[in-house]
Write a structure and sequence with these properties.
63 residues; IS402-like_dom; mainly alpha; Transposase; single chain; 33% helix
């Protein structure tokens, strides 16, 4: 289920279009990704912006 933009640190669609091409593509033959890359980047930005620890991330972010 895709997350809606809920936090001020979440990327806008325009920002994601700039960042997505910079991420390395998944390796062929590897296991499928568990979580969308955008959700991971949003979680990283949330931690950087708020200064919370990984364990304090809201539940709607990936683990």
């Amino acid at each position: 289920m895709p997350r809606r933009r809920r936090y001020p640190s979440d990327l806008t669609n325009a920002q994601w279009r700039h960042i997505a091409p910079l991420l390395p593509p998944p390796r062929p033959g590897g296991r499928p990704e568990k979580h969308p890359r955008r959700a991971i980047v949003d979680a990283i930005l949330y931690v950087v912006r708020t200064g919370c620890s990984w364990r304090q991330l809201p539940i709607d972010f990936p683990p």
